[in-house]
Design brief:
The protein is of the alpha+beta class. It has seven helices and 21 strands. The chain is globular.
Length: 369
């Protein structure tokens, strides 16, 4: 033991005391691909906002609890003089220079989830704050559109999310856990994620990413390599409540479709043809030579619906809309919902082993379906 310690003490004196370590003092060469995303992020981050919701505290409650409500836990509305109690936190993105902001519906709901919050406050990166007007919310997709009144507002442009590929580099931006606007990075992990993930929306077509998403990120953007809005961060799958690399974002093309309706009319108009479907098993699809593409068996047809009028029957196997294939029932249902009432739709289907075509006019889906 004594000899070991002696050797340890003497070791630096055996020619190693003069070892030096090299430092490359050059700044990062940001002209190199993927060396830094700082310039791109600097362009898009000003369009990302923090969103807070609050409820008015009645005067009687204030009087009753006078002195017992911490002053730093309430807000004061400068215009109305009302005292507000913060109830929620999320993120959003300005997507139009006139102040249109997109976020998640669940970000702007009251604490009891029964309606839209009394007060929605949008804070920009430059610390400007605006009281936002909620133009519309959509429960089916969990999208909300807000409007703020301001000048020289930064905004982000949408990407074509149909062109996204697994492996694309992406960035999630938002205000996680009220830490302040934060950027995380990752890749597109999967596309077309739906109800199997248990997110609970009626119309789902999620982009899955491993970019860190945490509470407070909801409603913030998923940005592509060129600084365009590829999706809206909406949900995570986690056993702990924190990020484990399973984040889900609503794709940009679905956002544009829903947000356009909400911004212009306050509600979403969806198409309906009156069918309920079920995915074929692999064995059934193979028997029909459909193993490499989606196919849906018609399980139910609503009487008097466009499908019924066009002659579709229970048991028919739908293989395409306007000649375009799909992967499963969820994708087919979403595609139909995105058609506008009055549009003519061609449904390719198989009946008793023979291919056929039905021409029908899309109807309007009731708001509660």
């Amino acid at each position: 033991m004594f000899r070991y310690l002696t050797a340890l003490v003497l070791w630096p004196a055996m020619g190693l005391a003069g070892v030096s370590f090299d430092t490359d003092v050059r700044p990062v060469n940001r002209a190199l691909p993927a060396a830094s995303y700082a310039d791109m992020l600097a362009r898009v981050m000003p369009s990302v906002v923090s969103i807070r919701t609050a409820e008015v505290i009645p005067a009687a409650v204030l009087e009753r609890y006078r002195g017992r409500i911490p002053s730093d836990s309430v807000l004061k509305d400068e215009k109305t003089g009302e005292t507000l109690m913060p109830t929620g936190l999320g993120s959003g993105t300005i997507v139009h220079p006139e102040g249109y902001v997109i976020t998640n519906r669940h970000v702007v709901l009251q604490e009891n989830r029964q309606g839209v919050a009394t007060t929605v406050i949008v804070q920009l990166a430059d610390r400007r704050e605006f009281r936002a007007k909620v133009l519309g919310v959509d429960a089916g997709s969990d999208i909300a559109v807000l409007k703020i009144e301001g000048r020289n507002l930064p905004f982000a442009k949408f990407a074509d999310s149909d062109k996204a590929r697994v492996g694309d580099v992406v960035f999630a931006i938002g205000n996680p856990l009220d830490a302040g606007i934060t950027v995380t990075s990752g890749i597109v992990s999967a596309l077309g994620r739906s109800g199997r993930q248990g997110m609970g929306m009626a119309f789902e077509d999620f982009i899955q990413t491993d970019a860190a998403i945490n509470p407070g990120n909801s409603g913030g953007p998923l940005i592509d390599f060129e600084g365009r809005l590829l999706g809206m961060n909406t949900a995570i799958k986690s056993r702990t409540g924190g990020n484990i690399g399973l984040g889900y974002s609503i794709p940009a093309n679905l956002i544009v479709s829903i947000a356009t309706d909400l911004a212009n009319g306050g509600k979403v108009v969806r198409g309906l043809i009156g069918v309920q479907g079920e995915d074929l098993t692999l064995a059934e699809a193979t028997k029909l030579n459909l193993a490499k593409s989606g196919a849906v068996r018609v399980a139910l047809i609503t009487e008097g619906s466009p499908a019924a009028k066009a002659g579709l029957k229970v048991g028919d196997v739908i293989v395409a809309l306007d000649g375009k294939p799909f992967d499963n029932w969820n994708e087919l249902r979403l595609a139909i919902s995105r058609r506008k009432p009055g549009e003519v739709l061609m449904v390719n289907f198989i009946r008793e082993g023979r291919g056929s075509l039905a021409r029908l006019t899309v109807a309007e889906r009731p708001l509660d379906r």
